[in-house]
Amino acid sequence: MVIGSGPGGYRAAVLAALRGLKVAIVEKDAWGGCCLNRGCVPKKDWYHSARLIAASGGFGRRGIRGELSGDLARAWRHQHDVVAAIRASYQDYLKRLGVVLCSGTARFVDAATLAVDGAQIAATNFIVATGAAPCVPPNLQRIAQRVVTTDDLFAASPPAGKRVAVIGSGVVATEFSFILAMFGLEVVWLSQHEPLASRGYSATARKMLQARLADFGVRARTASRVRSLQADENGVRLELPDGTQERVDWVLLGTGRLPHTASLHPAQAGVALDARGFVIVNRFQQTSQPHVYAIGDVANPAMTSNHALAEAAVAVANVIAPQTRASDPGAVPEVVYSALELARIGLGEEGAEALGCEPATGFTAFETNPAALVEDDAAGFVRVVADADTGKLLGAEIAGSAAGELIHLAGIEFGNPDALARLAALPYNHPARAEEILNAIETLAARWGLERQVFTSVRGR
User: Fold this and answer.
1) CA 285 to CA 296: how far, in whole Å?
2) Residue 25 in 3-state DSSP?
3) Pair 17, 99: CB distance under 8 Å
4) What is the spatial distance between Cα 281 and Cα 111, in angstroms, rounded to a whole number?
5) Cα-to-chain-centroid distance, residue 453
6) Is 40's pLDDT higher than 70?
7) CA angle 406, 309, 324 (to 5 degrees)
8) What pTM did the predictor assign?
9) N or C: which end of the chain has fewer CB atoms below 10 A?
10) Could you read off the pLDDT of 151-187 as tens digits, one per residue?
11) What class is the 147-255 domain?
12) Which of the listed CATH numbers 3.40.50.720, 3.50.50.60, 3.30.450.20, 3.40.50.11690 matches domain 2-134+258-330?
């Protein structure tokens, strides 16, 4: 029994059915969960449009006439149609696999039984994938069409007005500050901390992103935690720590999310939560009840769909053969879609040093990459981090266009002791951005005396 149909729950149900298990999945809201309906999928739809608008400023010198402008209301309708099509495809595939779809709110009756809107369903194993809900600080509040979360933004047509305050310093605020600016809104970005400072990206990547955002007139005002807000017929008035006020037409809250367990009654099944409300799991995604697994936002503070998808595969593998496959959170890529795309996997230099490793780094910039230059899009870099003693790949970071796709090259080999040699032995297309991964590895090998580890032939290559 899978509880929740977001990316983790959906993948768990599909994988379990493909492995021959009898599967049911329950969803209390829209099928596809937050990611499909109110998160990464509609956001990626808008991001693609924002990138096109941003690039249009350089169309003239390429011999292309005209510039693009954004229409947020029309963009909302486009993402709505795309999401509806994907949702129908999701449901159809589950049905064709023989997965039983249950609509309703699930709660544990005991460790072996769920109640779904009055009906009781028994199962041998459970996978909890109930996701998370927006966190609204107590000094703020949601107000329809005035103060909204991303859940609200994609659930109904965008609020009226051209001046919007984006509150937060995390991924949501960083992404939507860019997206909304590209659609012609005046963005007032208010944050307490430096954007993305807690997400593991290097200072170089963060600084480069901030510079690129500034090119589009978007700047975060740090030390600006909003003390209070008040909405009226003219918009929203925000009180800031220095005693000043900002007046905007509407507000987007990017103030984080909280794991969603309230209606699940996990205690009824003996499933333990931590002090922050996350379901406690071991490295096999098992909860305090070994036959109950938890994945995604409800169990992982990283709160990314990427982690949910990876953990779904781990949970299903362990349902079939208990404790045979462990999660590796560091091997899951993280991506930020903003004015400069950022992607990372594994450790950076600081993380490597914290583990007692001496980091060896290889760095190359897209500013000399032919593929990037012909696209007039040469901002960014590739950084590869390895252990200076063994040559083991510890992490990679990419900034620039298609970073979210390129990071998969490092991810494919991540964890293999000879990952650098395998990546160096790959044939690469030319001209391509991916060549900078090869260049970064070769630079690392030469600089740190790791030629033997990197250029030794790899079996099968």
Assistant:
1) 10
2) strand
3) yes
4) 16
5) 33
6) yes
7) 110
8) 0.95
9) C
10) 999 999 999 999 999 999 999 999 999 999 999 999 9
11) alpha beta
12) 3.50.50.60
